[in-house]
Amino acid sequence: MFEQLQLDSLPLLWGGGLLLIGIILMLWWGSRKRMQSTIDRQRQDIRHFEKEVQKASNQLLEVRSVVVGLGQKVAEQQDVIQHLHERVTELEHTDADSRLYSRASKMVQLGADLNELIEECELPKAEAELMMSLQNKLAGKEKVPPLSSTPGGTVKAQRRRKANQPR
């Protein structure tokens, strides 16, 4: 009977073994599909992140170029500021006499007299008189003499006038 049972159960064992192998293959196939979809999703994520990294890298390059440009502009502005500072310092230390003459000129324009110029600007009398005369001539209060040595102008101008006079 045991032999009979063994022979009768042989196809059953084969069927059970094949069923077991089929179940194992199906589980393996399902697991493989899930792994493949996970791998595909991860590859897609990697491509997405690589694109994002590339975008960020391009933006960083743009920011760097802007920063370099701004740095150059700042350096240029610092040079300009330094130059202006040096110029202001230079102007502050200009000849004190020129400032006195500027002040004296302004005082004459405002109506100061000879004694005020001498006292306030510490000018010698001759220089104060010269300042007064120049300012009056510039203002049109005094007539400016011609630059020739002859009273009627240059010799050529006198000859032209003589030639143009009716006879």
Give me the secondary-structure topology.
Layout: H1 2-92, H2 96-109, H3 114-121, H4 125-139, H5 155-164
Structure, described:
With 167 residues, the chain is mainly α. The model has no long low-confidence stretch (mean pLDDT 83). It has five helices and no strands. The longest helix has 91 residues. It has a domain of 48 residues. Helix 2 packs across helix 4 and helix 3 packs across helix 4. The termini are far apart.
Write a concise keyword list for the protein shown above.
single chain, 167 residues, mainly alpha, 5 helices
Give a quick rundown of the structure.
This protein is 83% helix and 0% strand.
String of helices and strands: HHHHH
β-sheet strand percentage: under 5%
Binned, the helix content reads over 70%
**Which radius of gyration do the C-alpha atoms yield?**
54 Å
Low-confidence stretches: none
Shape, per Cα inertia axes: rod-shaped
How many H/I helical runs? Answer: 5
**How far is the N terminus from the C terminus?**
175 Å
Largest sheet descriptor: none
